[in-house]
Amino acid sequence: MTPNIARKLAGADATLAAIIRRVGPCGLPSKPAGGGYFEALAESIIYQQLNGKAAATIFERFKGVYGGRFPAPGRILRTPDARLRGAGLSKQKLAYIKDLSAKTAAGLLDFGSLAALPDEEVIRALSQVKGIGRWTAEMFLIFTLARPDVLPAGDYGFRTAVMKAYRLRKLPDAARLEKLSHCWRPYRSTAVWYLWQSLVNLKFSS
């Protein structure tokens, strides 16, 4: 992300400006990954509801089944479930990974055209895969496709950060977040990233 975006956000929102000064340069990708979408989605499934260290360990074990490289969908489909369960995948996540692999192999997910779709169409396309809901699709939009104006209104960390930063009495709902974030447009992804980082920054400064 360019410094200009941070300056524009800081000029539009005094609370966010203080966070930006404290956190420093934005760490979001400045352009789409340009590929590796299947791997990014599989990794996001593995990371669901796990802390980063545990998820990273399972992800490396998963790749270890294939000699340390990320496999093609067809190879995953040919791998016995017991072997993947042995790498640490839960029964549920194994089902999700296999469903993603099957839909990718069948051409139901057209990664070639995905980057050209509007945000909501990307979310609809990805949500046909078991285990990929709106939140996972929104993370894909932000971190893989580098979409600039995503507002993950259901993300607990983001909602918590907003509540703390803006001194709200309770977690904001989607309507409150939409209203509050209006001045961040069209760079809400960057604003969200800074608010996530504000929680990390608070932990280190407390």
Question: What features would you describe in this structure?
Answer:
By secondary structure, this protein is mainly α. The chain folds into two domains: 83 residues, Endonuclease Iii, domain 2, CATH 1.10.1670.40; 107 residues, Hypothetical protein, domain 2 (Endonuclease III, domain 1), CATH 1.10.340. It is built from 13 helices and no strands. The relative contact order is 0.15.
* Total beta strand runs: 0
Average pLDDT for all residues: 92
Characterize the largest beta sheet: strand count, sense, and whether it forms a barrel.
Answer: none
Portion of residues within helices: 55-70%
Domains, number:
2
Helix tally equals 13
How much is the radius of gyration in Å? 18 Å
The CATH architecture category of the largest domain equals Orthogonal Bundle
Main CATH class of the largest domain? Mainly Alpha
Per CATH, the superfamily of the largest domain is Hypothetical protein, domain 2
Model regions low in confidence, pLDDT < 50 over at least 5 residues: none
CATH topology of the largest domain: Endonuclease III, domain 1
The rounded distance between the terminal residues' Cα atoms is: 28 Å
Any idea what the shape is?
elongated
The proportion of strand residues reads under 5%
Query: What class would the helix/strand composition place it in?
Result: mainly alpha
H-E string: HHHHHHHHHHHHH
